[in-house]
Every structure is written in C-alpha cells, then in structure tokens.
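Following up on my earlier thread - several people asked me to post the actual chain instead of describing it. Fair enough. Here it is, all 128 residues.
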Amino acid sequence: MQDNNTGVLAQHQAALAEGKFLIQQCNDCGKHIYFPREVCPHCGSDAVQFASPSGQGTVYAVTTVRRKPADGGDYNVSLVDLDEGPRLMSRVDNLKPDAVKIGQRVSARVVVADGKGVVVFDAVGVAA
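Reply from S.P.:
Thanks for posting it. Predicted structure:
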C-alpha cells in the first residue's frame, strides 16, 4: 500500500487541485471506478489507472437541503451516474435547487477554491 502523499487519493486530490477530474479504469475487467481505490472493486485487480472521463452523466437522485438565506440558502445534493458507469454525489450548480430533476443530463466541471478542487455539475442545455 502506498503512503498518504503518493497514494491514489493523494493523486486524485492533486489532479482536482489543478482543475482536472479523473476517474480510474481497470486494465483487467475494463470497468471504471470512482472514488479512487488501490484495487478494482469489481475484479480485485491492482491494474488500475487514472483516465479522463467524458464528464457527461445523468441525475439519478436529488434532494434539496433547506437553509436560511443567512446561512447560504438552499442547495441540492445530487447523485449522478457518469456515462462511464460510476455514480457520485455532488451538486448541480447552474440551476435553482428545486429545478434539478431526476433523469436530467449534466456535465462535470471542477471548481477550485483555496487550493482544493471539487467536482460539480451543470445541467446540459441550460444557459448559465
């Protein structure tokens, strides 16, 4: 196992900090993996490598978290199925929280703040 400075999580965080969204793909079974792991959860192989996904996906589930305006206002929490297969939790940024719908097509982008990157999504076909 690799240490915390060179392991797959550190590599993933470094890529996000540079504005790059990467997932892994297993060289043995061909399946895509997200969140990064040392071994493939599908077949157990350690022959995994980072790859750039299309960034395209579909909202699988969504909920609106209610907050007072003084606390930042409402936001959505969305589960997104990437076209490559993995499902991840994030948010859809370019719509009001109540406007995000299951089945909606979205596109990933990385937002970097204070040296840390996070993957968010924008609804496809919606003006920013």
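Residues 54-128 form a domain with the OB fold (Dihydrolipoamide Acetyltransferase, E2P) fold (CATH 2.40.50). That should answer part of your original question.
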